[in-house]
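Researcher: Structure prediction, please.
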Amino acid sequence: MDTASLTGKELAAAVNADTTARAKALTEQAGRAPRLALVVANDDPASAWYVNSLKKSAANRGIDCETVDLGADATADALRTELSVRSADPGTDAIMLQTPLPAGISLDEVSPAIAATKDVDGVSPLSLGLLTAGSAGFAPATAEAVVELLKHHGIALAGRHVAVVGRSNVVGKPLAQLLLAENATVTICHSRTTDLPAVTSAADIVVAAAGRIGLVTGANLRPGAVVVDVGTNEAADGSIVGDVDPASVQGRAAALSPVPGGVGPVTTALLMRHVVIAAEQARRNGGVA
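Model: Predicted structure follows.
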């Protein structure tokens, strides 16, 4: 059995084309482009690389992206103040808070200051609550990217057993809600799960999102399973690898998303689409957050 590659390139390109067209229409209608405020409070090189990639992607879509650098020594009060000001600013359509945050500050402390209508990466408790309730709101883009990638490649979700390895608020928990909305049966696995291989080998679809190199191998899968690798880990040689051991999965899994080139480009594309959706909603509401 050949293992198909669940690449994200074509899907990302389609999403980007739609986003670009909608951003152009909004700019012509409102006299200004959709605007994203990217709030940063760290000096992490990997974060800086990601911020630059987001700015480039926004520019390619016709979106204004303003980086608000508060410095690596920013306080929780300073972050909350900035996020509150941006949330109330009619000239800011969308807000994204880049991590990591300064030492001693958790996302839970500051993310509630982001208005749900502008929380395009779905990080605030209100956004996560709306997702759980099945109400309108933005889902974390990485979690949404997993579902969209599977649907794009024609992978049926209704009635299927999906094992999600990882329980973060960024991927695992919101992904479970999105999969439930697609009528999948979901098992969330984590560091305290007893006999993880027994759980993953019983699943039709396995999503690896724990941030551990080689966590999922072919021996952990049932033949013909579909595997989505959300991991982005730095290997000893400096390359980026996922949570799945791809060599052992080849020939056993029906399909596997590559790292890089799978979930990643779709995540960035969906973030930009969220910015435009937030701008469209703001125009309809007269700019009120």
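Model: The first helix runs from residue 9 to 30.
Researcher: Thanks, that helps.
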